[in-house]
Amino acid sequence: MAALMKGQPLSKRELIQKAAIDDSTFSRMEPRLLKEELIKIMDDKYYLFNFEGDEVLEEIFKKFVRDGKKLVVIEEVADLAGRSPESIKDLAYKIAKKYDIHFYYPNYVNPLYKKNYFKIS
Known about the structure:
This protein is α+β, with helices and mostly antiparallel strands. It has helices at 2-6, 12-19, 23-35, 53-66, 74-81, 85-98, and strands spanning 39-42, 45-48, 71-72, 102-105, 109-110, 115-116, 119-120. The protein has 6 helices and 7 strands; from the N terminus they run αααββαβααββββ. Strands 3-4-7 form a 3-stranded mixed beta sheet. The chain has a two-stranded antiparallel ribbon with strand order 1-2. Strands 5-6 form a two-stranded antiparallel sheet. Helix 4 (53-66) crosses helix 6 (85-98) and helix 5 packs across helix 6.
């Protein structure tokens, strides 16, 4: 993986050759790698991402504690981590509990009252 990351960006052919896999294997794996945001394609070049989720999110939540933040939105955390909210949600909730930080959802509609309220997890 480290060798692949040094030569970025890579063409599809270069990535397949350096990863020592065949075309059909890559074709099967590519959708999942894109969905999990382990690779990104820009201008027909492939970029590999090595996301150390725990460490990155720990630092983000430590900064929130230093700044006195107790309520955050998942999109803010995802933006700071450079990831999609869906890809970090479970891990972010787990780490947030450790720092007594809560998430709120500004567009949450309470089903009992059919009105917008802040929902805090």
